[in-house]
Model the fold of this input.
Amino acid sequence: MSSTTNSGPSLREIGRDAMRARITEIALDLFAEHGFDQVTVDQIAAAAGMSGRTFHRYFPAKEDVVVGEPEQWGEFVRDAFAARPADEPVWDSLLASFVAFVGLLEQNGRVQRGKVAMRVLVSTTSLRARNLEKHQLWGRMLVPLVAARLADDDDTALRAEIIVQAALACLDVAFTTWANVDDDTTISELLERSFAALRPQV
Amino acid sequence: MSSTTNSGPSLREIGRDAMRARITEIALDLFAEHGFDQVTVDQIAAAAGMSGRTFHRYFPAKEDVVVGEPEQWGEFVRDAFAARPADEPVWDSLLASFVAFVGLLEQNGRVQRGKVAMRVLVSTTSLRARNLEKHQLWGRMLVPLVAARLADDDDTALRAEIIVQAALACLDVAFTTWANVDDDTTISELLERSFAALRPQV
DNA sequence: GCCATATCTGTCAGTCACTGACATGAATGG
DNA sequence: CCATTCATGTCAGTGACTGACAGATATGGC
Done:
């Protein structure tokens, strides 16, 4: 294992990620054309030249092809929030964290395909549901940090929960609106306008 | 069909509702004891003295036993909102509508069992997801009414969406908190405190 | 080059949620 | 008493997933 360099992701990790990306690309095309529910896992697998069983070795659930890996990005958002100055209003910190997250997506060139993915996502009930689970996960990761920033009155826990959920709702609305619009409006711009609708209080 | 009185729900509707209630009761006990995922539809059906096929004639999906019928209650909330005075701040109108909804639940005596249901709900991923779909449905029903109440600037649509989503997040947090607490705190009280956390702006 | 090991993959069988089609039996209405 | 309607059971089938097994492939040490 000391052949090239022992840094970061192993050789196999890279191959695995490449395979996941390939499957995602193929599956997304099928979903966009026929609809998520009309495409079976076996069809995706066949189009990718593998068995259905192997598909499930890369994606535990069919939905995960569209939703991605919430854990990984959730950690990024959490870290981005933690890196914000402690005296900044939490609402601004949350906005900044989400904007950084969106920037990461754009940097990865996922935006083009992301819009296709988002359109599939918002038009399919089971996908919306799975995506909202992701929000819950992010919520659990963010609430403790937000609570630590709030004034310590008797309702800190509840207020932190509400603020995070409201922020996640803004994120969701921003992405959904962006997916449904044809012009070049930026996600970041929609995010800022969404946060502005609730800003004066936090 | 003109036998008794031709009013409201037909004879068969009543029987159907009773059957649904019976299944719900039995299923909830099983879920509370073994966990939602560990109980199969056939087990519920057997405990209720019917075949699995018949269970699905009363509940299209296993999750619906816990989540209930969002459509029906969504209409109630929408109507409650519509009945509010037009010059009341939307945030207060939304709170009042949700409080009325909670009152309806309490009146139906669903609260005792509702707490059991809620605890099952918040502890099961697939149920949380299905419940969040309900929120989306309610959102689609409320957004037009809220938008009509807002000042007509260029961001009305987005703002209405955000406000409704934020209100639904408050509802969710209130219910979740209520389910996880052992004392006698009222849902209405938690609802008011949740709304208060975001009030100053809407 | 050769062998031991780990990894990837396909196949097969099985579970579970859900659905359509058909048959039966009970209740309803004239 | 008969015809219709409705609830239900049975059966077969689909589709997402999972575990177990076996063959292929690759990797690392020698």
